[in-house]
Write a structure and sequence with these properties.
alpha/beta; Rossmann fold; 6 helices
Length: 170
């Protein structure tokens, strides 16, 4: 797996919060080594306003972020994907479209901040928590020697990242 940039898909059901956060974080933190996308199996059609607000507050770009179906990326002419990370339990259990090139896949389940209830402050805290958990997993991903590690070991490491206790990912 040696190339100039790796294409990574963050996959969720609604593609309105967690997968969007993952896309934005990796596109910023990946420093050109990675190109991140996000999609959903049943997209909501809009990015959650609290996700956009949080990204803006943290000075992460939001231009181009939108809720879209995984079908958009799976069709001919879509990007060749090197990695696909599911970030919600629903998407992990669904049958995914065929991804040409057999990308490395892993499940990195994160609680859905869009489903949080309570005061506005409590809901914003759920988005911050999801962001921190994704950011920490992405930092670990970025530290992997992707170009020099064999596929089986890479798969093991990505699975380990996804199995981190939620407190350890905070």
């Amino acid at each position: 797996m040696t190339q100039s940039a790796y294409n990574v898909l963050f996959l969720c059901t609604g593609n309105s919060a967690r997968s969007i956060l993952g896309e934005a974080i990796l596109n910023q933190r990946g420093e050109g080594r990675f190109r991140a996308f996000s999609a959903g199996s049943h997209p909501k059609g809009a990015v959650h306003p609290m996700a956009l607000e949080l990204l803006r507050t943290l000075d992460l770009p939001t231009a181009g972020l939108r809720s879209k179906s995984w079908d958009e990326l799976a069709r001919p002419g879509g990007p060749h994907l090197d990695f696909v990370f599911t970030v919600c339990d629903d998407a992990a259990g669904e049958v995914c479209p065929y991804w040409p090139g057999q990308p490395v896949t892993a499940h990195w389940g994160i609680p859905d901040p869009a489903a949080a209830v309570g005061s506005e402050l409590e809901r914003k805290a759920a988005f911050r928590l999801a962001f921190r958990q994704l950011e920490n997993r992405i930092k670990l991903f970025l530290s992997l020697p992707i170009a020099s590690i064999d596929r089986m070991r890479l798969q093991e490491r990505l699975d380990e990242i996804g199995k981190l206790p939620r407190a350890a990912a905070d």
